[in-house]
Design brief:
single chain, 21 helices, Rossmann fold, alpha/beta, UDP-n-acetylglucosamine1-carboxyvinyl-transferase, Chain, amino-acid biosynthesis, nucleotide-binding, binds ligand L45E5XJ5, five-stranded parallel β-sheet, binds adenosine-5'-triphosphate
Length: about 675
């Protein structure tokens, strides 16, 4: 997951390949609660691992439920409606799929509970559900504003005779919550009547489908009246598989529709969900097809290719696909006219006011947008010049972040910044990694920051922090020379120019791979071994051999991957990435560098003296600067930074400011 303050997306050009999507949030949280309330043990496969499922799992454990996790498989031993912990305080983040159903389930059983969430959750209405539960005799108090969480639940005095009326026109989650909770107390038939038009009916279909899997058959009567039969009991189905999330699939369906494939590849394959999905958002497919996407599907897969181009503008009632419809609003940027999405009033009470958010952010990109109480109308920029680089505010709303990433395919190749990219953790923590696994940019548009300079000037430290803050890859090019020196020494090859060919032959066989900050040579983690002063000196020797340097060029350039790269070394800016957008030449006085290196070695328990360290590093710098190929020197367009008197933080901030000054935002 990208936990950076923002994530800059270079212009994306192609997309092709297969993606496996995380489990559906709607199914995951429903199944977790149903399993916890039923008799028997349920093994849930392919459960979504995200913020919203995590708060549900914590809540279930707090309530005394036995939860055993192993990757995406979770075993729940159901409580059959009897809670060992009769009082609990539950924090439910911003998870509507946890807050609403848990409110109903805990309100109908005896106990004292407090349910709260993040500030936005306390602005999301729950009054209609509370009103319905109060008709049943549930004791519920508002702890903040009337009609909104946080809530206090007490012991109910249940009255099951009259039909329970619940509004269906604000959120279908209220009806879902009642449908899942009432089997716990169905000593007689319980009737729920929906007041107003039921929105998001597909979500109710998921609820009924899953209730049936847990042994409770609820028949809808014209989708206005639902009867939970007397004696209904939730029983574990044993094993249950969670489909991939159809709302998450919408981004990749859109990706297939708007992107062309690179040579020899063929569209986007989405694995884990097919056209026969029980999730309502699968009908996003139809909307994407109406806009021009070519889609094939089979059991558990979809294959999407670009069809009509530009996409065709549509006018669509989106009541049946409220979440996925946000993706249509971004697809509209690539359409041949004005797209109108109607019947989306529920957007106003989601993670944020999504109609307002989408309108504001689409306008930043240059689109013309008209918004109303329950619709949005999007007209793309009239020409290439109409597109504007934009920093997209994401409102702590995962769907805003995910759907706007698709704007990186804009034909004007303007840059895009996604603020707070980690908000995708709500449903799809690895969204951007998944996007980058199938999307590609022209290599020349993938940004590179080079940090070159003499030994122990702090290049590695600075470059690693920059990479972390920008969410970029990190290349420690010195480690490649260090490994080469190590391998040659181990092979008994003296490090002199006469053995250059032998060293290169050996280098070409080395199974080097990087895993985070660890460097592996085959099965051996050599990260620490190559950090000694001796290894540094040996690296300096082999790095002077022209054929060794040539043999390492492609390996280093291959680090230039989406979304960007920070590279540290001696010739990053002069030879390996001469067209890098920012080149920093980092120096510090020799005395200062020797002192830093001494501290560094002593902290690792490696004995050293200041004088010998200074002599060594000066010798290394002299060799590195005087060699004939790629000598250590600042690139002509490098910015010099002497950090002798600077802290690491100040150096990092200085370079981040330089980087920011080059951005169009
Ligand atoms: N601005 C700074 N102020 C104080 N100490 C620093 C600063 N930058 C780096 N250091 C410290 O100096 C030491 C050497 O830094 P680092 O290993 O990053 O240097 P380097 O240039 O990558 O070295 P090498 O060329 O050997 O790979 C580390 O202990 C690091 O924490
Ligand atoms: N781009 C580079 C990087 C390193 N070297 C040589 O390797 C030695 C070790 O590098 P560290 O950054 O890990 O200390 C260094 O002294 C150089 O001789 C290089 O040539 N080019």
């Amino acid at each position: 997951m990208f936990s950076t303050v923002f994530l800059d997306l270079p212009p994306l050009v192609h997309a092709a390949g297969a993606v496996t999507l995380p489990g559906s949030k709607s199914i995951s949280n429903r199944v977790l609660l149903l399993a916890a309330m039923s008799e028997g043990t349920t093994t849930i496969h392919d459960l979504l691992d995200s913020d919203d499922t995590r708060v549900m799992l914590i809540a279930l454990r707090t309530l005394g439920c036995l939860v055993e996790e192993s990757g995406t498989t979770v075993r729940i031993t159901g409580l059959a409606g009897k809670l060992p912990n009769g009082s609990a305080k539950l924090f439910l983040g911003n998870a509507g799929t946890a807050m609403r159903p848990l409110t109903a389930a805990l309100a109908v059983v005896a106990g004292d509970f407090e349910l709260s969430g993040v500030p936005r959750m306390h602005e999301r209405p729950i009054g209609d559900l509370v009103d319905a539960l109060r008709q049943l005799g549930c004791a519920i108090d508002y702890l903040g504003n009337d009609g909104f969480p946080p809530l206090k639940l007490g012991k109910p005095a249940l009255k099951l005779d009259a039909p329970i009326k619940v509004r269906g026109d604000v959120s279908s989650q209220f009806l879902t919550a009642l449908l899942m909770a009432l089997p716990l107390v169905a000593t007689k038939d319980i009737v729920i009547e929906v007041v107003g038009e039921l929105i998001s009916r597909p979500y109710i279909e998921i609820t009924l489908n899953l209730l049936a899997r847990f042994g409770v058959q609820v028949q809808p009567d014209e989708w206005q009246r639902f009867t939970i039969p007397a004696g209904a009991k939730l029983r574990s189905p044993g094993d249950i598989h969670v489909e991939a999330d159809a709302s998450s699939a919408s981004y990749f369906i859109a990706l297939g529709a708007i992107s062309t494939a690179a040579d020899g590849q063929n569209g986007i394959k989405v694995q884990g969900v097919g056209a026969d999905s029980i999730q309502g958002d699968i009908r996003f497919m139809e909307a994407a097809q109406a806009m021009g996407a070519k889609i094939d599907s089979g059991p558990n897969w979809l294959h999407i290719q670009r069809g009509a181009w530009p996409l065709k503008a549509i006018d669509l009632d989106c009541n049946h696909i409220p979440d996925a419809a946000m993706t249509l609003a971004v697809m509209a940027l690539y359409a041949d006219g004005t797209t109108t999405l109607r019947n989306i009033a529920s957007w106003r009470v989601k993670e944020t006011d999504r109609i307002a958010a989408m309108a504001t952010e689409l306008r930043k990109l240059g689109a013309s947008v008209v918004e109303g109480a329950d619709f949005i109308q999007v007209t793309p920029p009239a020409s290439l010049q109409g597109w504007k680089p934009a920093s997209i505010h994401t409102y702590d709303d995962h769907r805003v972040a995910m759907c706007f990433s698709l704007a990186a395919f804009n034909p004007a190749r303007v840059q895009l910044r996604i603020e707070d990219p980690k908000c995708v953790a709500k449903t799809f923590p690895d969204y951007f990694e998944t996007l980058f696994s199938v999307a590609s940019s022209a290599t020349s548009s993938i940004p590179v920051i080079c940090v070159d300079g003499p030994t122990a000037s702090g290049k590695g430290t600075l470059a690693a922090v920059l990479a972390e803050k920008l969410g970029y890859h990190f290349l420690d090019s010195g480690s490649l020379y260090r490994i080469t020196g190590l391998a040659a020494t181990r092979a008994g090859i003296p490090l002199d120019i006469a053995n250059e060919a032998a060293i290169v032959a050996l280098l070409n066989t080395l199974p080097i791979h990087f895993e985070g900050s660890h460097i592996w040579l085959g099965n051996e983690d050599v990260s620490e071994l190559i950090r000694t002063e001796e290894a540094g000196m040996n690296a300096s020797k082999v790095s002077a051999f022209p054929a060794v340097r040539s043999a390492l060029i492609d390996l280093q350039r291959n680090f230039r991957q989406l979304p960007g790269l920070v590279a540290d070394g001696r010739d990053m800016g002069t030879v390996i990435f001469p067209e890098a957008a920012l080149k920093v030449y980092l120096t510090a006085s020799a005395a200062c560098r020797a002192e830093r290196r001494l501290k560094q070695l002593i902290s690792k328990g490696i004995p050293a003296t200041l004088d010998s360290l200074r002599a060594d590093l000066e010798a290394r710098d002299a060799r590195d600067s005087s060699r004939t190929v790629a000598p250590l020197k600042p690139a002509q367009d490098a910015l010099l930074l002497d950090n002798s008197e600077l802290t690491v933080d100040t150096s990092v901030q200085t370079v981040l400011d330089w980087w920011q000054s080059k951005q169009p935002f």
